């Protein structure tokens, strides 16, 4: 006899926020379902730290703030996510007076991993594009020195640029930052490959 499928428990937006604010773990929220965020690798964490440091230094005298992966972003009332790095320029807008859910990111950066790459490139980017404030979406590979950037154009089209190799640079024009891949991957040890 086949097992009877069990309903997936869901939460309202208010229940999710109450649960999340009390939780020691981070969870993303999509249409009533919550998804636990798994721990990140050493390389993943180093890349985040390097990006926050490099961009933070370049934005020091500008009206921009750089947040690591603990800043939650609300896309719609039914979608909450934790980008690896988020930048907001101008007046940061938050969902409420707890100031832990950002509504208007300018730049979102995701560090690719084998388990999340397809989602980061597909469904997650599709959701992020619903944010009227978002100007650039950046994907950083954990493989040697490769960064991809999508820039929102005035004509409503997302243009693509990438940079590859330790000496390469990529400009984040919406925030007037330049990333040198040597800095992005500082102290990251890549696995040896044959060939």
Strand neighbour order, sheet with most strands = 3-6-8-9-10-11
The named CATH superfamily of the domain at 41-72 and 81-184: tt1808, chain A
Mean pLDDT: 92
The whole-angstrom Rg is 18 Å
Number of strands: 13
CATH topology description of the domain at 41-72 and 81-184: tt1808, chain A
Counted by DSSP, the helix tally is 5
Quickly give the structural class: alpha+beta
3D shape: globular
Helical coverage, percent range = 10-25%
Low-confidence stretches: none
Beta-strand percentage range: 25-35%
Please identify the top-level CATH class of the domain at 41-72 and 81-184. Answer: Alpha Beta
Between the first and last Cα atoms, what is the distance in angstroms? 52 Å
Give the second-level CATH assignment, the architecture of the domain at 41-72 and 81-184: Alpha-Beta Complex
Would you write up a description of this structure?
- The chain is α+β, with helices and mostly antiparallel strands.
- The protein has a domain of 136 residues: tt1808, chain A (Alpha-Beta Complex), CATH 3.90.1570.10.
- Helix content is 22%, strand content 30%.
- The protein has a six-stranded mixed β-sheet. Strands 2-1-5-4-7 form a five-stranded mixed β-sheet, with helices on one face. Strands 12-13 form a two-stranded antiparallel sheet.
- The longest helix has 17 residues.
- It is globular.
